[in-house]
Amino acid sequence: xxxxxxxxxxxxxxxxxxxxxxxxxxxxxxxEKNTFYRRKILEKGLRPTDIKKVxxxxxxxxxxxxxxxxxxxxxLLACSMSKVVRLHASSGTTGDPTIVAYTRGDVENWTDCIAxxxxxxxxxxxxxxxxxxxxxLFTGGLGFHYGAEKIGATVVPSATGNTRRQVKLMRDLKVTxxxxxxxxxxxxxxxxxxxxxxxxxxxxxxxVSCGAEVWSEATRRRIEKEFGCKAYNSYGLxxxxxxGVAFECSMQxxxxxxxxxxxxxxxxxxxxxxxxxxxxxxxxxxxxxREAMPLLRYRTGxxxxxxxxxxxxxxxxQRIGWIKGRCDDMLKVRGVNLxxxxxxxAIMGLEGVxxxxxxxxxxxxxxxxxxxxxxxxxxxxxxxESSTExxxxxxxxxxxxxxxxxxxxxIVPPSSIPRVEGKVKRVVRGDVETA
Length: 435
Ligand SMILES: [Zn+2]
What we know:
8-stranded mixed sheet; 435 residues
């Protein structure tokens, strides 16, 4: 199913024409209306008219998270405040939050992007769609809310918190699709079971859209099994608009990135050099239709790749792979690069492993030492010590197969790792030990 079939199935040549026109307009716009970008462009020795083609994108300067901070709150604005109808902010862990402004046109485009995403996963006006994401300054709740409403679905804006009530609403209101964070989606399933509700049999869920956290194919299969539904991967970031930047179609083979609104590049995060299709690196996005805060070559900090070839669903918009992690999530263990997502992919597919895990890091002699705490399922924990020993060995073997590293594994009781009603913290850094 398509929300905007003409655009979604547009021949690549026509799509390129639109991208070229919009890129030129965006550059002209920021040069004329934003002093930060005017200075950046001039520093590169460029005039706005120098960029005539999409493949000249590399000549333009990067924009970073630091630029948002240094220009807090409105230094990246490219229109007058009277045109701004909404502000969102990302949770800055340090310093000022990142402020993002939207014109009416920006909100409309964003809403259409979400409507495309949800339609692609089968959501229609017949669905009851629960939004289990934060409302407010965080973009997730309102983004999905307006997109689902535009399709005509019945929206249940239950936001976050009160997990038992979330499940009760899901059952009583006959919810058919929802969006949430992947770790919390598994927690919803656990809570349902604890309240005597079988998520697969007693609920009517057809699809769930998950994002805002690094997860893997293994967790997807787990969610699909728990709810007896399809689970789709959702990608977005507040600086660029929020959710709806890229999303999986029914093929579940990469995320379509809406190429009429965003230009994607993959670069080497260390050198800034452009990488080829199918090469893994940092995703860089240029917005093509943003009016309030257009961005040139924004370094997302997210690691992924652009996938090669067309998709069988008929959409011509390019696809990106699963987000492997943030560039700064990388751990160095005995000289080997390790991403938490690799641990996730290794363990979440194993029989006997429960729904949560933690990666504990300690530093010894300037090296990261890693212990993975893995929850057992009720079944595997109940069978006693020899069974948990056997599980630990299987987990170790699988992690070694995926990462090449021998990592300490500790099996812990089911539901013993604290559950959170928001983004889960998988990596916990312990005290620094000095030799
Ligand atoms: Zn597709």
